[in-house]
Write a structure and sequence with these properties.
The protein is α/β, with parallel strands linked by helices. It is built from 16 helices and 7 strands. The chain starts with a helix and ends in an 11-residue tail after the last helix. About 50% of the residues are buried.
Amino acid sequence: MNIFREVIQKVSRGEKLAKDLTREEAAEALRWIFEGQASEFQIGAFFAAMRMKGESAEETAGLVDACRERALQLHPHLENAVDMGDPYDGKVKTLHLTVPVALILAASDIPVILHGAKETPVKKGVETQGVLEALGVELTSERRGGVSPPEKGEATSPLQQILEQEKIIFLPTEKMVPDFARLRPFREAFGLRPFANHIEKIFNLANATTQMVGIYHRPYLEPMSGALRLLGTERIFVIQGVEGFTELFISRKTLVLHGEGKETESLWLDPGELGFRGEEELASRTEAASHAGRILEILKGSEGMGARSILWNAGVKLFWLKKVNSIKEGVARARVILESGKALEKLESLKRAAGSPRLPSLFT
């Protein structure tokens, strides 16, 4: 019997009879898809069955295993790096804060790995790569040359060199994991958020010791945390954040599941405890340029709710990453970095390292 047929039968027997796959079964199923041994009908059935059942921690880890073993990876000579796993399908309502927060962390000598892909289904909102490119950081653009991913067997790559030098990088996942890119047509046709949207956030292609992962729905907190443990991540922060991002709300408390060693704890982060109150700053649904323009204003000293949200998020993460002794101290340090222009300097330095052109006149 076709192995993939057995997998489909196991996961698609309905709410009471469906069974979870083992880690190896999940990995083998995705290998079959990558190797062209599953028909389009079988792939569609697998997408649907996993969506209806929901992925267990072991299944998620197995699916990631199948991708990581085929991936181009970085092994930078850095300690305490953090991988930021935001949804690849982007934002549709609020200002994109991951990039400016990452710049503050990098300016604090914390290595930060960003990653993603453009126009990812289902939302196809404003994603990290689009914001970076609108800011003038052309790490992956074929139009302007850009920085290429490493080749198989390459000891180091331009991407790794930039990460080691600048303490911040963006990795184009579909170029780093070419087989995974082959799932895009099925994702487009499926019309719902499949397992691919969950696993792409946690490939950890630069082998960071800390992973921060954003999720939208609370039921995914435990399975995602469990998968990261199985994959060997030392420090885990699974965040039910703004639009499913790793961004903490400024309008209300944010639920975070933190794992380190054998310990796991639930955290409720309350911005009101440090005097932060208000609503998340709204932004254009589809225009990365509008996000980039507002981010530049903040990096140059503009105030407002977006700037306060950046300070809150950066302050908490500086504390989590053990650069300060309290969240209050983290917010104070983030403020100094922002107001001194060091975050903007980090952006300019990153652009120079990548050989990027100047910022478009729109932003000057």
